[in-house]
Predict the 3D structure of the following.
Amino acid sequence: MSRSSIRLAAACLAIWLASCQSPEPDAATPTHEQLIENRGEGKDNWWDALPRAAWAGFDAIDQSQSWFEVYEVEPGVFAIYEPGQFEEIISYLILGSENALLFDTGLGIGDIRAVVDQLTALPITVVNSHTHYDHVGGNHQFDDVRGTETDYTRNNSAGRAHDAVAEFVGDGWIWKDTPEGFSKDAYVSKPFTVTGPVRDGDVLDLGGRSLEILLTPGHAPDSLCLLDRDNGLLFTGDTLYPATLYAHLEGSDFREYTKTAARLATLATEVSTVLPAHNEPRISADYLTRMRDAFDAIANGEAESVPSDGAQEYSFDGFTILAPDPLPEP
Ligand SMILES: [Zn+2]
């Protein structure tokens, strides 16, 4: 398990804990203490991996907040990166000629609205890759927020109280100075209003650029990807990035994730670049077929695994997958 996969595992386990609705652990369920033992102060200076080499090829865009780093990673596509916190979350501002789409809104520690306003004057539509706390933090700053028609999205739109998210800004999670006016003691995931639905196959026309919605449940019930067919771009959120993929969380569904991986692999010939939501902004499209093959290998009992954090971890070239133990029935 690589450093990055360890810390991503810890991060998503924290999400799992924060959203866990099952307070009574049984014999196969790790205790809270077991789940958090890899996380926290002094365990791992995760920020020693920064800056990541993947960002070196891009020029940082001038903007006013040191909390964020902004890079134009494709023409008209800005990665808004928050390397100061453990998740290293990446939100993407995608420009058309008439409208802009903001794919995720980060942690809600900095003022992402101000970043966006410095990059474009176009009207903004927000779409979330899913509604884990690190992807929706700035949703409340926008008037047009589209969401899936799932209970999961509806429930998460109510926000999370301080107690549910305090640890994500606690010791070991943040190395950068936080913005003036931000208080760790008052950190919450603010509620937001979903102003319109997104459905599978919807096409959002930004003017000179169309983005297709692909509902891709698995990591979360409301996971989705954005496909820019004309430019060969696929924005994958937490469904695919080059570290540990989570198919074992509360709300995850291994079987749905396997179907999602198969579907995304069919795009491998027309997509040239995959843009994930953590760590680094561009990976090659061959990850799509490799992810499908990996899920199939696990489902068919052909992959080796080791126990990890109450799940099984399967290692592949460039990524690993945490899957529930035992696997759910097909
Ligand atoms: Zn997530």
